[in-house]
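hey can u run this one w/ zinc ion bound, need the structure tokens asap thx
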Amino acid sequence: MPRTVALLLASMTLFSADLAREGVRWWSHVQVLADDKMEGRNTGSEGHRKAAQFVSTEFERAGLKPAGTSGYIQPVEFAVRKLDEPASSLAIVRKGRVTPLVLGDDASFSLRADLAPDVDAPAVFVGFGLVVPEKGIDDLAGLDLKGKIAVFLTGGPSSIPSALKAHYSSAAERWKAMQKAGAIGLASIPNPRSMDIPWERARLARLNPMMSLADESASESRGEQFAINVNPARAEKLFAGSGHTFAEILKLADADQKLPRFPLGLNFRAHVKIDRSRVESQNVAGLRPGEDPALKNEYVIFSAHLDHLGMGEPINGDRIYNGAMDDASGVASLIEIATLMKEANAHLKRSVLFLAVTGEEKGEQGSLYFATHPTVPKSAIVADINMDMFLPLFPLKYLEVQGLAESTLGDDIRAVCAKAGVQVQADKEPDKNRFIRSDQYSFIKQGVPALAFKFGWIPGSPEEKTFQDWIKNRYHAPSDDLSQPVDKTAAAQFNRILLDLGERVANAKDRPHWKPDSFFRRFASE
Ligand SMILES: [Zn+2]
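ok here u go:
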């Protein structure tokens, strides 16, 4: 064998011993964060506070400077809403006949918005309910929605590029369009084909307290008086007598056909009792200062979310939602990447900010707060590299990158992966909207280029089955805990790749920028 190959193999063997060691160290952080003692790290809980303390200590050990507003901590105030379900009710009223809906079985209130105590309003089916000016799509046009409730099926036609669809399907954009059309609320019917969490499990989460930033100026749901999620298996009763069936709607959607839009001929009548309180939670920020006289005033952010779902309805007797992969794994990677930089005595031109955020599970609230109240100048944030549930469940042969084609960061991750012998994949399930479903989106909305990641797989492979089974059985369930099989060495390899990416971006001459044809570029020019 050629000498260079022999040398390369020798260094790879050495390197794999390092990787094994680093994988164990990474896992040791996951073990602390996902321990039952942390009680699932719910936003605002004592468990979350303890976890934030642990991260502060580890950031300090990794040589990071405090970059919160109180040491490493940036406190975040939340308004809390908890549904008093026995004191609440929901019904459909058709021609004076009242049919009660069973909360949790037929439908659930969504407390993402601060709902009005009493609503009685007509319902209109608005198809996908999407307004996408770039594609000339307006599912609300020509409908009388004034004072009414817009009922929609999730998803959208395949003619809308995934980034556009992802953006306009977000809760904030949807509500903006519906409110503009005069609606006072919405009812979402998930397409069963694209539901990550089966209704049976989602229904358990409906009584968890919902939180939004106490600073109302950032609220994206102002004016939303009514919001429910409808069980698709029970949705047929909304369509009875409308001249359409839900089965027909689903069939059209699945065949990528245009959906009809029509009044449902019924009113939703809701009485909602909400217990309101306030709570404080924590973002944790640590800084590795850059060394270039000019570029050190720019910041590359590594982010991951510290919060998970806390304690909730038991599944198989377990009521602690540990969130080992979601997202103790990402926070452990923050600590690990900072530690690797320290061990290598890395000299970087730009500064690197390590950020563990709260409130992700409440709708990316902690990152929204940081991105709108950053502890460094907002215009000096050049990139967000977010790690949320990257799922190291098998060897790292493929890395799926969300946002790959959107900015020059995509070129950077390609270069880094090529060096590591890992193949890059674009988002394989763009309809799941993952690029806008974690904390990177809070930065993207401020104009900052970003990436997010999953361990990749080839469709039809055993790895795909492992991934899909995980989503089905462990995602947002108490079984996302420390007793699941995880490939620690592969996680270490992922950390190394992200470390390389961070260093490449920190040392580049130019800051990253959106590609000229990227949809997300618009936020940068605003
Ligand atoms: Zn989650």
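The longest helix spans residues 3-33. anyway lmk if its weird
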